[in-house]
Amino acid sequence: MSNKITAAITAVGAYVPEYRLTNKELETMVDTNDEWIKTRTGVEERRILKGENMGVSEMGAPAVKELCKKRGIDPSEIDCLICCTVTPDMSFPATANIICYKIGAVNAFGFDLSAACSGFLFGVTTGAAFIESGRYNKVVVVGTDKMSAIVDYTDRTTCVLFGDAAGAILLEPNEEGYGVLDSLLKVDGSGEPFLHMKAGGSARPASFETVAAKEHYIYQEGPQVFKFAVKGMADISYELLERNKLTGDDIAWLVPHQANKRIIDATANRMGLSMDKVMINIQRYGNTTSATIPLCLWEWESKLKKGDLIVLSAFGGGFTWGATLIKWAYNTAIGELLAT
Ligand code: UT7
User: Fold this and answer.
1) What is the domain-level CATH number for residue 19?
2) I need a surface site. Which of 16, 103, 165, 277 has the fewest CB within 10 A?
3) Is 334 exposed, middle or buried (0-12, 13-18, 19+ CB in 10 A)?
4) What is the number of the ligand 1 atom nearest to the C-alpha of 26?
5) Does residue 36 line the site of ligand 1, with CB under 6 A?
6) Peptide bond between residue 319 and the one before it cis (omega within 30 degrees of 0)
7) Is 156 in the pocket of ligand 1 (CB under 6 A)?
């Protein structure tokens, strides 16, 4: 019997801009304070991509380059690059194309995927399906968002939350059962009124009026989104465990989207996980939308062991949400790549 092909994560890369926007600095910009931000969100500082004409490809490209270097491959070996973002360099062409061009991924096709804070999960599931089909051998999924480009720094209810970053993974075929094992993904467009950007799309193209009315910034009704996020992320993570006949004890790590420390705590609690099994770096980066999950994998990579069962979980604008179960494929600590 031939083994089923699964899509194993075989390398992780990331890029975080140098500039740190601290809660202290935000106190000088809007009516807020370090204590409120820390206790209500968990954020202490976030990174900001500074400079003229710097789009998300400036972060996505180095993240993918790092990943190639770690895996010891040339970018020309990449078959497909999925760029998950809600802040593309421009409406078109796709940022995936620009990243491929910048890194020399001359044999790849690619496209952008828009699912807000769940973008990376949707990208991983899509990329895994390409690998499982047997058609492609190296699929890169990069989550890259420059939230500072769409944040209104006079609105204290949103500007304290977000930051800029990129994270990327490489998916490759595996015949020993490592990699993406299951995914539950959902969308509900009735959530649109609570979290969106009003103008700049085809429904409401940019005009002097839209700019004057600040309609090119994130609009969020925080408490409404919070309510849906707590329930959505916790329930779907629990459902994923149940459907795979697992309990919290079987899970080595929860890798949650980093939107609010309180949403993360609720998800871990529902899954029956102790907090020492939960990756949390919201205090250093804030909510980087598509980049939060790969950024966690990047920071925790050396602690991950071959065979660890990990759950990725997210909730975001749209609404979009989901959870993905992964069997980790390699031990970085001993420099041993066991995935292929
Ligand atoms: O990743 C995409 C999905 N997004 C999310 O998951 C975000 C979900 N929402 C949240 O995380 C939370 O709703 C927020 C962190 C955005 C807000 O926290 P909250 O506990 O829901 O606060 P709130 O909006 O109910 O505001 C409570 C109070 C208000 O004052 P009053 O009306 O009680 O006097 C706000 O005006 O806190 C005030 N407030 C602030 N105070 C100081 C709101 N923002 C700030 C601020 N600094 N930055």
Assistant:
1) 3.40.47.10
2) 277
3) exposed
4) 48
5) yes
6) yes
7) yes
For the chain (340 residues), the mean pLDDT of every run of 10, in chain order, is 86 98 98 98 98 97 98 98 98 97 98 98 98 98 98 98 98 97 98 97 98 98 96 96 97 98 94 96 98 98 97 97 98 56
Listed in sequence order, the residues at least 6 apart from 187 whose beta carbon sits closer than 8 Å to its beta carbon are 115, 318, 319, 320
| In a shared domain, residues 192 and 284 | yes
d(CA 230, CA 266): 6
Same domain for 224 and 125, yes or no, is no
CA distances from 5 to 127, 217, 293 (A): 13, 42, 24
Q: Which residues are identified as catalytic?
A: 117, 257, 287
Closest C-alpha among 212, 209, 210 to residue 197:
210
Please indicate, yes or no, if residue 153 is contained in any of the structural domains.
yes
Most distant CA pair in the chain: distance in Å?
65
